[in-house]
């Protein structure tokens, strides 16, 4: 069972690539039901932080935990099994597949039961496939793309693919959703829609970690903001705290 209501905690996380300290002692707490913004200049360690949480990289120092339970080391699939889902800076989409199929992939990630059902040739997989398809249609409706379910994914605009990726991540019913610059390339209207969607997801109890350059979106929808600089936490607090933080304003927000 998932510890649904436990926060995701990072304490003293360090990750070096050779001589480069990509993250250098990061502490972070993402709470269920909250939107947590992660901002900072290019190269400050934001994407690396997401990669560490997802299990793509093992940190050399520090602890990660869901509540009191340490996150097991290793594979991204295991993190997905714990309910940690993500999207990428550049959407990772199978162009020749339909939009619906791309979203359904998110449902099969958790499907260890269908894995064994297939091996044992039980009649279950078809029923599960139908359920996954129904859920994928709901996920597409949630992001406003139900009308494009049967379209080939490579016919979609870049901005639409960002929403397809979010729909795929929602298939996990994630306890934590990590978004890497979801507003990049979106119109003002699409950003408003994205913001409303992220807040609705958080209201369902999901903890959202939002890496984003779009400062208005961060300050509009976040409950908490952490600012990274040179792989370290420069500031952490409410949007109001961060907006009035002297070093943040001079180092990053550029007033
Ligand atoms: P941000 O997302 O804030 O722009 P990143 O997390 O991508 O920053 O990068 C932080 C630092 O780590 C940068 O100096 C970057 O060059 C370095 N870095 C990130 N990934 C790698 C990698 N796979 N190999 C070597 N250096 C990396």
UniProtKB/TrEMBL annotation:
It is found in: Cell membrane. Residues 8-255 form the ABC transporter domain. GO terms for molecular function: ATP binding; ATP hydrolysis activity; branched-chain amino acid transmembrane transporter activity. Keywords: ATP-binding, Cell membrane, Membrane, Nucleotide-binding, Transmembrane, Transmembrane helix, Transport. GO terms for cellular component: plasma membrane. Its main location: membrane. This is ABC transporter domain-containing protein.
């Amino acid at each position: 069972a998932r510890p649904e209501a436990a926060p995701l905690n990072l304490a003293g996380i360090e990750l070096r690539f050779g001589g480069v300290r990509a993250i250098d002692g990061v502490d972070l707490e993402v709470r269920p039901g909250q939107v947590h913004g992660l901002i900072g200049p290019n190269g400050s360690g934001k994407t690396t932080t997401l990669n560490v949480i997802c299990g793509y990289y093992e940190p050399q120092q520090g602890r990660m935990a869901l509540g009191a339970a340490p996150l097991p080391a290793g594979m991204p699939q295991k993190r997905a099994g714990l309910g940690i889902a993500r999207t990428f800076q550049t959407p990772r989409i199978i162009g020749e597949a339909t939009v619906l199929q791309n979203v359904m992939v998110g449902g099969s990630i958790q499907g260890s039961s269908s894995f064994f059902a297939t091996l044992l040739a039980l009649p279950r997989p078809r029923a599960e496939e139908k359920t996954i398809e129904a859920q994928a249609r709901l996920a597409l409706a949630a992001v406003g793309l139900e009308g494009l379910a049967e379209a080939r994914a490579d016919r979609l605009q870049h901005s639409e693919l960002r929403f397809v990726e979010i729909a795929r991540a929602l298939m996990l019913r994630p306890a934590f959703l990590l978004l890497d610059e979801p507003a990049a390339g979106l119109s003002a209207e699409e950003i408003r829609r994205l913001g409303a969607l992220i807040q609705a997801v958080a209201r369902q109890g999901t903890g959202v970690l939002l890496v984003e350059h779009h400062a208005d979106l961060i300050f509009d929808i976040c409950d908490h903001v952490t600012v990274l600089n040179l792989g370290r936490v420069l500031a952490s607090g409410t949007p109001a705290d961060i907006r009035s933080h002297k070093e943040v304003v001079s180092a990053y927000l550029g007033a």
